[in-house]
From TrEMBL:
Lineage per the UniProt record: Bacteria, Pseudomonadati, Bacteroidota, Sphingobacteriia, Sphingobacteriales
Keywords: Signal
Top-rank taxon, per record: Bacteria
Protein known as: DUF5074 domain-containing protein
Keyword Signal included in the entry's annotation: yes
Residues making up the signal peptide according to the UniProt record: 1-26
Native organism: Mucilaginibacter rubeus
Amino acid sequence: MKKTITTKLGAVAFSLLVLVASSCKKDGVGVNNNNKPLKTQSLGKYDNGFFLINEGWYGHGTGSVSFYSFATNTKQDSIFTKENPGKTLDPATSTLEYGTIFSNKLFLVSKVGGPVVVTDPYSLKELGRIAAVGGNNWQAFVGIDATKGLLSSASGIYPFDLTNYTTGAKLTSVTGSVGDMIKAGNYIFVLSQSKGVVVLNASDYSVAKTISGMVVAFTKTPDGSVWAAGGTSLIKINPATLAVTTVTLPFTANSTWFAWHPGSITASTQNNTVYIANNSTFSGATTIYRYIDGNAASLTSPFITIPAGKELYGSGIGYVPQTNQLAVTTVKSGFGVNYGVNDLYFYDLNGTQVGDLSYSGYYFPAIPVFH
């Protein structure tokens, strides 16, 4: 098995190095033919790259946070515990399933009795947390403004005070298991296991609209449109009028509720283009489709087919705004020890693979998170 990468990078290196393309891939060393210059000023140790939020091996250890560096095309592991001695993401029976950056904070959300932890996104120093408690099953976070947000869970949605990191009384407008959430305009879009997309008024969390049948969500394109999918439908929701436009998918968009993970859908920040994985009922996609808004023919065939013998795990795809690429997390197809064989692939927006970081270990990647 390949050695897991644990390279540590200093902030000085960020201002001196440039991205270089490598002609070959060595064991434990990534390749990304990008050639994008680095920032000349560093905001912190973890600014020039992105995070990989890992579930962890359920029952054997907690989830973890890794950092992929644009400077060296390498990955540094377990950065939360390294930056916060004595603090953990315990219990080992929880899974770290979601992460996002909002209001200059990185939110880490654990399922199955685990904690919610808020950190500085450049130093990873902990700022606050909701302690791990048996019976909690947090699933995602969305920010509303600088002082408040919402946490979804397997039992509904809770207000989250961002000044003292406490939760309020559960919302009565949405019940049951709720996963992904996103804010656009004056609305909050949430994905309910029982009702599909539920649109809430941001002012009072009352229900403005429900769109049934949706099981994969959410992403947002530069025009502000919110996107979700279910069955053979990919939908675009106008964030002002809530009007829905439907596009037919050439495959069935399956739900992630069996063992919930963030939706396998992302969008470019440069143009109105959506990318969605053709998952089975439990992740496992081998193809990714692209929809260019207004161009139905763009969905005719897969945009990306990942290398043979590999399949997506977790969310599996993310758009990298700094490099204008797609990052794709995979494991070896199959079960058991195959979950210890990982690849982080990079694709340009022509669908060409331009990078690959191979690494070993039972990480179970959940979602990439970008500055």
